[in-house]
Amino acid sequence: MARTKWLFPKLTQTDWRKEAGEVNYDVIINNRSMSDRGFLAVQRPAEPSPEKKIVSNEVLSRDGAFYRDTGFYKDYEQEIEFNFMVPQQSEWAAKVRELRRIFETAKTLMFSDDQQFVRRIKLAVVGDCARLGNLIGKATVKLTLDPYHYFVPGQRWIKQPELYRYNEHDKSRPIYRIIGNGEATLTVNGYSCTVIVPGQIYLDTERSVAHGPESENLNANTNADYERLLLKHGDNQVSVSGDFTLWVYPNWRQI
Fold first, then answer.
1. C-alpha angle 10-15-19 in degrees, rounded to nearest 5
2. Torsion angle of alpha carbons 64, 70, 71, 76, nearest 10°?
């Protein structure tokens, strides 16, 4: 008996959108559009409220408890549901594998209606992929995110002090890059630290580490108190001594 050959028509992007419903916004992973890859978000996910890390202490001789605000926030989770469609039934599983590959290396999340800010992905889990028909699928991705939203113009190296000095957002954790040779003094808002510069050195206030251009450990080259090198909200005074050149990666952020 001859085997029946099933043929599925090729679907254009317009047909795709007619089937899945027109999208009012896009999800952008690692600076690439998900809809351009054929994955359409079902709806804009809710925006979770940030949760502070609070330390509580019970005292037997007092009513209630004491609470201390640590000044830090917890990571939060956000789920995004995607629809996708393939032109042929035999390509459905390959599309699922493509979705998993995307999120294996996912580091940043952006929404098309909020492109001034980027979120940092710490963990991505692709759930079960449901087959809604021969050509259509649906999957939910759960993302664990850094609590802050990072202002895109601050995700770059800046040399001119007038461009990084003023911080209109929350207190940020910048990276300082000093170029030169010898002993330099880095001063931020009145606090000074000594840095031995072997050509160039990076002071990363988020990780509290000093390293070279090849990520070699240079912690012994500085006596910096990284918590005092943060960029406060408002105007900041930042300078380096002598003939050294200073670049700043501001990491401006908003909770």
1. 115
2. -90
CATH for 13-151 (1.10.10.10, 3.40.50.300, 2.40.30.200, 3.10.450.320)? 2.40.30.200
Least confident interval from 13-22, 24-33, 165-174, 227-236: 13-22
Q: What is the pLDDT of residue 24?
A: 63
Task: Say how far apart CA 211 and CA 203 lie, in whole Å.
Answer: 7
pTM: 0.82
Architecture label for domain 156-254: Sandwich (2.60)
Q: Is the pLDDT of residue 187 over 70?
A: yes
pLDDT averaged over the chain? 89
Domain boundaries of the chain, sorted by first residue: 13-151, 156-254
Q: What is the pLDDT of residues 75-134, one digit of tens each?
A: 999 999 999 999 998 899 999 999 999 999 999 999 999 999 999 999 999 999 888 888
- The dihedral sign for the CA sequence 31, 113, 83, 121: positive
